[in-house]
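Q: I have 308 residues here and want to know how they pack in 3D. Can you give me a structure?
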Amino acid sequence: MLDAIRIYLAVAETGNLSKVAKARGLAVSSISRKIDSLETELGFKLFNRNSRMVMLTDAGEQFLQRAKNILVELDEAKSSISALNADPKGLLTITAPSSFGRLHVAPAVVSFLKRYPLMDIDLNINDDIVDLSSQRIDVAIRIGTLPDSDLVATQLAPFRRIVCASPQYLSQHGHPASPQELLQHNCLSPAGRKTVPGLWTFAGVNRSAALPVRGNFRANDINSLLLAAIDGIGIVHLATWLVSDMISSGQLIQLFSDARDPSQKMQPAIHAVRLPGRSHATKAQLFISHLKSEFGEPAYWDKPFLNQ
């Protein structure tokens, strides 16, 4: 199949079966059979062909980048295996969102450097979505639903939000029995007009649209919302990776089970992304594997919620 993918890419580039056949020292009929075999394997046509021209179908266009990535991944895997016996060294540049980066990525970087002392790490902690190519970033941590792109993505953990409040708040204002009752409570939310996907959204409630909750405190910093909730100001809907320790210690109480919306085709997650084919790919893969090992499966911050 890999040879057929290489032939498909060559034909897509040249638009000519004869040129590809000549370059490979094969008959045109052999090239055509390889394409037929690949189309049968994939279940869709890659080219519209006649005696005068070869053109990619819409499906063939969509498969083009994925096919390139398959070959890049294979080459990188070979490089990784050949480098297993060598001590990794050199610079790796990583970027991660502020709060998640401080809580979970920075400790993993420390343990990575203890294991691979010849490595150098530049860790960028900020909430900007940076362009990996122009900023020369080797690994970026992205949270949410990834848009379509040429980046190679590895899922590190699911992304979950839970609704929680402090015992103090609940003793003063009561315990909402359902998400709909949040409309009668003081709900603390991010500031700004930008809609945060999944915030105050619950499967089967309000047609899976965000509930129009209200509250007397908004902030553009989730740690500020967290601290306000711990101090009894109101209810928050925050990521499990942020509130896990507070739930375990009893500073916050989870109000409802984490019911994910089954109708949502692309579930949000925490990913590590990198550019395909970059010279630091082997070291990037090594760091991503280390992150997956450090976070665990399920991720250590999700363990308090598994039986709820």
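Q: Anything worth noting?
A: The radius of gyration is 25 Å. The mean pLDDT is 88.
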